[in-house]
Structures are given as C-alpha cells and as structure tokens.
C-alpha cells in the first residue's frame, strides 16, 4: 500500500529517469557534490575532509568526495526501488534522516539543494522530461526527511 502521492505510472517513469543517471553512480554522484560544494560553499563545512578543498578539480579527484557521492546515489537508489511501498521507503529514509538530524546535525535545507542539483544534472544530460519525471520523487524524499527532522525537534 502506498501513502505516496505517486501513481504507478509516475513511479515507473521516475525509475526510468533515475536509471539513466544511476548507471554512472560514482561519476554523477561526484558531479552533484562538487557542484553543491562549489555553488553552496557552506555545505562543505559539514565534511572535515573537504573543508580545505577549493578547486572543483581537486574535489573531483578526492576519494572521499567520490565515496560520498556514490553513497548518496546508493541511498537514493534504495529509495527509488521502494517507491511503491511506503513502509519499505520509510524504512530507508527514517534512519538516514535521524542520523543527519541528530548525529551529523545537517541543516535539512541542504537536502533540497542536493535534490535540485540532481534534477539540474538530469535535465542537462537527458532533457526536461527526465527531470520532470523525477521531480516528484525528490519532493517525496525532502518532505519525508523534513518530517523526520520535525520529529527530532528541528
């Protein structure tokens, strides 16, 4: 049963869109983080390893940046696989949200930033339709993360 606001057709097209970018999870995940750190330098402050890196080139080469880019994409991939099952979806989003809220103390605004950059990259690489079919998914993810943050007292 789905408490999600996505229809079965929307889930299918979102999966198709995601697959295109997930094929190169490490490179695309890295590209998303590098763009985030470059355009929103405050986001670097959460990562002790990345703080001193100023050039996009240096970030692209960094094993830590690449590793985290891949991790972000893997987490989203898990969510995308469970879009049709809200219980399974929340089973992935909830611990992730709790960890970022309580241990890492990441401002939840940053989730919207990273999602918007993923959508930008999709549009640049695969066009507006690809972006449009994934937009609802990023809204779901951000909404659920924000709810978890509220529960944790943010």
Short description:
This protein is an all-alpha fold and 154 residues long.
Topology of this structure?
Elements: H1 8-22, H2 25-39, H3 56-61, H4 63-81, H5 86-103, H6 109-126, H7 128-151
Keywords: Cytoplasm, Heme, Iron, Metal-binding, Muscle protein, Oxidoreductase, Oxygen transport, Transport
Pfam families: Globin
GO cellular component, one term: sarcoplasm
The end-to-end distance, rounded to whole angstroms, is 29 Å
Number of domains: 1
Mean pLDDT: 93
Say how many strands there are: 0
Helix-strand sequence = HHHHHHH
Q: Please tell me the CATH architecture by its name.
A: Orthogonal Bundle
| Helix-strand category | mainly alpha
The percentage of residues in β strands lies in: under 5%
Q: Strand count, sense and closure of the main sheet?
A: none
CATH class membership: Mainly Alpha
Family: Belongs to the globin family.
Domain Globin: 5-150
Protein name: Myoglobin
Keywords: Cytoplasm, Heme, Iron, Metal-binding, Muscle protein, Oxidoreductase, Oxygen transport, Transport
């Amino acid at each position: 049963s789905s408490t999600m606001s996505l229809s079965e057709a929307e889930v299918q097209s979102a999966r198709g869109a995601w697959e295109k970018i997930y094929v190169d999870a490490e490179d695309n995940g890295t590209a998303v983080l590098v763009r985030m750190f470059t355009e929103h330098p405050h986001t670097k402050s959460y990562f002790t390893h990345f703080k001193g890196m100023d050039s996009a080139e240096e970030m692209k080469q960094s094993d830590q940046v690449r590793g985290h880019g891949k991790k972000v994409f893997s987490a989203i991939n898990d969510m995308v696989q469970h879009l049709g099952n809200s219980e399974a979806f929340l089973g992935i989003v909830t611990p992730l949200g709790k960890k970022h809220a309580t241990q890492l103390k990441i401002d939840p605004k940053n989730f919207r930033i990273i999602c918007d950059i993923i959508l930008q990259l999709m549009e640049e690489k695969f066009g507006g339709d690809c972006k449009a079919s994934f937009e609802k998914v990023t809204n779901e993810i951000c909404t659920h993360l924000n709810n978890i943050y509220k529960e944790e007292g943010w």
